[in-house]
Amino acid sequence: MKHTPPLAGLGLLALLALPGCAYQPKGLIDDHYSTYKARLPEQNKVFVCSSYGCRTQTPFKFSSADLAEIRKIMSDKRTATAAGERQATRAALAWMETRADKAVGTWQDRPGDDAMGNGDPTQMDCVDVATNLSSYLLVLEQNKLLRHHQVGSVMVKEDFRRGLSGWPHHAAILKDLRSAQQYAVDGWLMASGQPPEIIETEKWYIEDKDLLFGTKSAAGASGT
Fold first, then answer.
1. 7-15, long-range: CB < 8 A, 24+ apart
2. Beta strands, E only, 42-168
3. Kind of pairing between the strands at 182-186 and 149-158
4. Mind listing the pLDDT tens digit for each residue in 49-83?
5. Handedness of CA 197, 201, 205, 210 (dihedral sign)
6. Is 2 exposed, middle or buried (0-12, 13-18, 19+ CB in 10 A)?
7. How far apart are CA 172 and CA 92, in angstroms?
8. Integer distance in angstroms from the first to the last C-alpha of the chain?
9. What's this model's pTM, rounded to 2 decimal places?
10. Minimal CA–CA distance to 134: which of 142, 204, 202?
11. Are 185 and 197 in contact (CB under 8 A)?
12. What phi, psi does 36 have (nearest 5°)?
């Protein structure tokens, strides 16, 4: 895959000025990597992001033995349906994260963010986590282990009305090939090696129906 220049630029700043929004960068997933000067996977070699915002990138290559274990997790039986594939993918990502984190020194990453973690190569923020999960997903895709999904561009959601809890947050994306439903893949609040959440983007972080000027939906549902 080639790198393409990010197209969001000023448009991204305009989106962040809104009371609340959800968006994906224009163009390919390359744009996200380019924005943070992160390296895309090279076949089975990934560059694990840490230090917040991918300021540290440590190479790690999944070996043939690693891939054999991953294929067992992503077996034909477990991935026979799209729902089954998402569950298998959660397990595979947890295994891949454990393997990579122990090798590069990020296995003690504290869930979420804290001031002490900023600049610490053992710690990861949501940009690091989303980028790493995207890299692991791309390895699965490149090895033809995703039958019902494809890897999408990283998604960002924010709602500054919520204060710090509404700060822009990133997640990797899987797209169902049949239904076109997009799923956020998010392990930011999980300890290293725990299966990430895989949830419809509409249900991830903040409810889309509640984004417009703080109004409630016609059904009267409130945000989470």
1. 7/31, 8/35
2. 45-50, 56-61, 149-158
3. unpaired
4. 999 999 999 999 999 999 999 999 999 999 999 99
5. negative
6. exposed
7. 15
8. 37
9. 0.80
10. 142
11. yes
12. -100, 10
